[in-house]
Amino acid sequence: NLGNTCYMNAAVQALANVVSVQDVFLSCDWRREVNVENPLGSGGAVVSAFAGLLWALWVPREASRVRTVVPNNFRRAVTSNNDYFNDHAQHDAQEFLAWLLDAIHEDLNRVRGRKPFVEDVEGLGRDDEEVAAQAWRGYLTRNKSIIVDVFQGQLKSTVTCLTCRHASVKFDPFLTLSLPVEDSSHYTTLYRCFELFCEPELLTGDSRWFCPSCGEHRDAEKRLQLFKVPPVLVVQLKRFATDSTEGRARKLLTHVHSPTQGLDLTHYLASAQRDAPLYDLSSVVNHHHDAIGGGRGLGGGHYTASCCHRTTHEWHHFDDSTVRPLEEKDVVTPAAYVLVYNRVVLLGKEKEGAAVGEQLSQQPQSQEQQRQQQRQLGKEKEGAAVGEQLSQQPQSQEQQRQQQRQQLEHLAKPSMEWDLGLLPPPPPRERKLVSGALLRKQSVHLPHLWPQLVARPSLYASGGPWGTGSRSGTTDDLGTFAGGEGKEEAKEHGAG
Questions:
Q1: Which of 205, 220, 249, 264, by CA, is between 20 and 30 Å from 436?
Q2: In this structure, are residues 424 and 310 in contact, taking their beta carbons and an 8 Å threshold?
Q3: Mean pLDDT across the stretch 144-151?
């Protein structure tokens, strides 16, 4: 912590544990995509500093297994390109995370030269898929980067005039989703937050909508729906509200139960997806209220991060230079503020099960009825699959690896220059693929996944900041090891 920089540390840890982010900045020559001419970028300063910080976190040096990284170079790059963060005040971790993703995007934007002007695209009675594709193509003429490929999705926005019923349909990109949290409850679910996000909103009074059909401002109904979801979904829980009696901002301490595995967004999508919209939790940014000041307001507080390791699937809690193991059941708490989810793709019998679930979701049934039928059909499918496996000759381990590789290579884009063999091996929990194999599955969703990047050998498969044992000393994010300073702290906390 360099002085109230816990918001920065927590956001960086959340990103540093996203598998595709690790793979891009540690296994690919991302420098080829730096756009030094982009006036909206930093000339590559921010992305270079971020990559250097990831390198310091994940790449082992000599016998170093546990250490503390001092992010001086990264902070200098941030403050040099954004005066808002150039102080020692506390800032919002979600705001910083959104800014950092946008800064990296602009530094790696593949659109060179002057960006073309793009008009808004409206439905006007046309098919949603056609309009959405046109809007997305227009967006890509100005914004095309690895951040767009991995983190951005698309929303459908419908505004309906309550007088003449004229409807305006537009499709907009999103980088993060800000979900409302119920204020009247001490406990809710993430699914309920998605329901509130998709509920119609009444536009009245000063917010009335100008209806082009009526030619004047009218009361209207606005509705947002997910249309296309990205490989990595960043969700912000809107935990800050205005106190109606005192008029002050306060924090909502509602416990939002969020699944660590198998988040299913099928019911909140307005379009069919190529693969089931299933996600596993990768990391959480927590905001802990300030106990001294009561802690329900925007001021004060402290940020930490909880992250899942890419190969061991073990969770750890990061508090600046302190790290400790974390049980999966303790990952999501009332302090959870930003959730980062990795999309997973089912293969084989599980994909068949997902198809059955999608068919059930199209029937007018309650969610509980759907879940019961899915479980029942899943058991039947599993029993049939077991019988089929018993009737087949047992395969060797090498044959199984080869079969899985062929399946993944068939799904991946043929022109993608990515050596699958350079990535760490799939973990035991193959269905989740929260390790190197996740990128292979994510490549299914990316329309143009770095075709010009060339993979190079992975240098971080030995465990990264979670290696066992200890070595005294700290390291900065320029790649040099500093012995002595902070050695006792690193040894005491096992800092990573």
A1: 264
A2: yes
A3: 94
- CA 385 distance to own-chain centroid: 33
DSSP state of 395: P
Closest CA to 341 of 479, 463, 176, 217: 176
Q: How far apart are the first and last CA of the chain?
A: 13
Q: In whole angstroms, how far apart are CA 82 and each of 87, 232, 298, 414?
A: 10, 25, 21, 40
Map residue 160 onto helix, strand or coil.
strand
Residue pair 152/139 in contact (Cβ under 8 Å)? The answer is no
Please state, in angstroms and rounded to a whole number, the distance separating the CA atoms of residues 381 and 359.
15
Catalytically annotated residue among 105, 289, 302, 493: 302
Q: State the pLDDT confidence band at 301, using cuts at 50, 70 and 90.
A: confident
Taking CB atoms within 8 Å and a gap of at least 24, the contacts of 417-423 are: 417/450, 417/451, 417/452, 417/453, 417/454, 417/455, 418/443, 418/449, 418/450, 418/453, 418/455, 419/455, 422/27, 422/455, 422/456, 422/457, 422/458, 423/23, 423/27, 423/458
Residue partners of 155: CB distance under 8 A and separation at least 6: 171, 172, 173, 174, 224, 225, 226, 227
Active site residue 211: no
Assigned token pair, 254: 């509602």
Query: Catalytic annotation on 6?
Result: yes
Please give the full DSSP string across 60-95, using - where no structure is assigned: --TT--S-EEE-HHHHHHHHHH-GGGSSSS---HHH
Cβ neighbour number for residue 104 with a 10 Å cutoff: 25
| Paired tokens of 186 | 């001490």
Assign residue 69 a region (left: φ > 0; alpha: ψ between -120 and 50; beta: otherwise): beta
Q: Which amino acid is at 439?
A: L
Q: Which listed residue (6, 161, 193, 308) is catalytic?
A: 6
Contact assessment for residue 258 and residue 331, using Cβ atoms and an 8 Å cutoff: no
pLDDT higher than threshold 50 for residue 447: no
Instruction: Write the single-letter amino acid at 336.
Output: A
Q: Which residues contact 130 (CB under 8 A, 6 or more apart)?
A: none
pTM over 0.85: no
pLDDT attached to residue 435? 34
